[in-house]
Amino acid sequence: MAVFDKLAVASLPYIPRPIMRRLAARYIAGDHLDDALAKLEELARAGHPGILDILGENVSTEAEARAVVGEYESAARAVAARGLDAYVSVKPTHLGLALGEPLCLELYRALARRCRELRLFLRVEMEDHPTTDATLRVFEALRDDFENVGIVLQSRLFRTPEDVRRIAVRPIDVRMVKGIYLEPPEIAHTDPVKIREAYLECTRMLFERGARVSLATHDEVLADRCVALARELGRGPSDFEFQVLLGVREELWSRWRAAGHQVRVYVPFGPEWRPYSQRRLRKNPQIMRHVLRDLLRPRRR
Ligand code: FAD
Prior knowledge:
By secondary structure, the protein is an alpha/beta fold. The chain has helices at 3-11, 17-25, 33-45, 62-81, 101-117, 132-145, 160-167, 192-208, 220-232, 250-258, 273-283, 286-296; strands at 50-54, 86-90, 122-124, 149-154, 173-177, 212-216, 240-245, 263-269.
């Protein structure tokens, strides 16, 4: 880890709340569901569909996990009532994966059922590698009963092409990401060039198997190569979309929209923004560079 990264990580717990809040502000809609709905409406006016994420992970009691499902159900109802083109995206450990796979599956099922009633989609997110097998099992069990669910796959992991071969034997909807968690070199690519090549390889495999792919990246070189790949394989606008994080590289959103692509924006909200931000920054301090560089750069839309 570079000296800057080490210093940045060590200083995280000591950064005063107002500064941390400022660091987090453009990446997080706010503390409350209303903040997130207002952000989704603003984005919708600008032509962007959305994804709603309630910040939090690793709940430690069943009651907490059940309460999270209740919050997601309220969020889903509010999105449907406003007629917004948006869906919910949920981390397995926020729904109690660490407390047991059966509980987690039960809660995802309840949420998937509610989302289906509301005609909404539900994305199962992917966390760090100790959770990958359980997350895929939960997803596959869900997919047996629900068409309105999708998964996330991380190109960083060596195992992902094999996972694609196994799970893309039926129609699936995959958010393809590089992977936010810094994984050990025994199981994951660490070279950014290899992570990008692996992303392309997995995307090719998914397209060839007829999957719908959400290209969740801000890497414009990679994005261009994915679009070229889609063309080469005869995949059209309904077969893929771009997905971006709120506040990140907004100049790309308009460029991609102007080229005729759908750009869906990930809108995280909730009072747990500080631990979430800290954990993310600690796991991948390079983001702190992005944040600091971004804070120093004039804002463009
Ligand atoms: P990078 O090479 O990391 O970034 C490309 C460029 O984008 C950088 O040069 C930089 O200029 C800019 N950039 C990237 N991130 C930031 C930032 N935070 N602030 C400012 N600029 C930035 N990962 C998971 O492991 N599991 C998930 O479930 C998951 N869901 C995601 C959902 C969405 C909608 C998105 C967009 C990402 C998600 N990720 C998830 C994160 C993903 O794995 C990557 O860590 C993240 O997208 C950065 O990788 P990149 O492809 O944008 O490429």
